[in-house]
Amino acid sequence: MGRHHARNLRAIDGVDLIAVADPAGDPFGVAGNLEVLPGVEALIAQKPDYVVVATPTVYHEQIGLALAEAGVHALIEKPLAADTGAAKRLAEAFASKGLIGATGHIERYNPALQNLRRRLEHGDLGDLYQICTRRQGPFPARIADVGVVKDLASHDIDLTAWVTQRKFELVAARTMHKAGREYEDMVSATCQLEGGLMSNHLVNWLTPTKERLTIVTGEKGMFVADTLTADLTFYANGNVQTTWDDIAQFRGVSEGDVTRFAIPKPEPLRTEHEHFRDAVLGKEGADIVTMEQGARVVEVCEAMIESGKTGQFISVS
User: Fold this and answer.
1) Distance of alpha carbon 92 from alpha carbon 51, whole angstroms
2) What global pTM score does this model have?
3) What are phi and psi of 123, to 5 degrees?
4) Whole-number mean pLDDT of the chain?
């Protein structure tokens, strides 16, 4: 992810990429004419206004705490930290220093989900009944220090809480290890959010084709957001009288109009960086994934993993 962060930092207005640090060198050649520094202390010595942390998850707490102590704002890639305790320590460290700290949950900035969030806020779906996500695909070889829950399901946990503006309360999950790795590579979860809203999440690294769907069902129909193509489609409940007696006996909804919306499709990572820049500058309307929200995502992830081990519903504090 570091190379993509560097590309966007160079592209957005009002930001200069002044330093890059990586003890492993620069395999993707993103530094350009910048010296590749050995670590976070050398980076801090360059006196940056803010730092983007795109390292393996196990190093997030150590690097983040060093940045907070130095008074540097930070955007830390997801998951925020390796466990809930570390994530909360990061959130508290940045808050206590009055710093802007954000978590890099890029899916929140997908154009389809941004548009969906606005439509739900406007009441286009009425009362919400259920949200389902499917995030499936092949194993990415770059992931070595977390399982599919913290790497992939964390996206769905954050976007579900964000688009519905509700917190997770109960988590039940079944996890599986099918590919011989240390961490789980498949999860199927059923959850409850505030207000009794049901959510279901199917996530794995075992499917030979990618699928990235978010489906929200409610009083007036159903929204389907495909975040691979950034398309948003609305399936309305029908309001045409059914005269075929056998079908009319079904006391549910019927099929109505289908609308696929034409929406602008900026790159989500660029949108994420623009919001974080604006937050650092103190501009109104900057929408970042706070470290507190990032810590809660880690907590829900760990509840999924615990539920998979125990076979029990796990309450999220």
Assistant:
1) 18
2) 0.92
3) 85, 20
4) 93
